[in-house]
Design the sequence.
């Protein structure tokens, strides 16, 4: 998968558009066209994008196949013995917290 495809998919999964993310991060929206045409962001921009989506730069560049692998490593500080079931429980709790906060905001 190309950088653009990964970036675009992350935008969609977060309910936003590439130009909106670029603008939010302080980039010209013209960079999206460059990325769509095969360019790859500079290291600094790549890091900003990775932090925005809470993924690794390796994931953005296609060097890891699953965002869950990076997230699992980050959440558990690389600890061995983390089962998929443990990870799913953490993700379910995160979803619960997100939903609770959305409910609070809605009032």
Sequence:
């Amino acid at each position: 998968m190309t950088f653009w495809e990964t970036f675009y998919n992350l935008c969609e999964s977060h309910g936003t558009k590439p130009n909106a993310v670029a603008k939010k991060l302080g980039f010209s929206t013209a960079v999206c066209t460059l990325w769509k045409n095969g360019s790859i962001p500079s290291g600094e921009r790549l890091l900003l994008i990775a932090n925005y989506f809470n993924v690794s730069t390796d994931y953005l560049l296609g060097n890891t196949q699953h965002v869950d692998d990076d997230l699992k490593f980050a959440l558990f500080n690389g600890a061995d013995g983390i089962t998929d079931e443990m990870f799913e429980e953490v993700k379910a709790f995160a979803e619960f917290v997100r939903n609770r906060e959305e409910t609070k905001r809605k009032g």
Summary: The longest helix spans residues 84-106. The chain is about 65% helix and 0% strand. The chain has a mean pLDDT of 84. The chain has two domains: 1-64, 76-107.
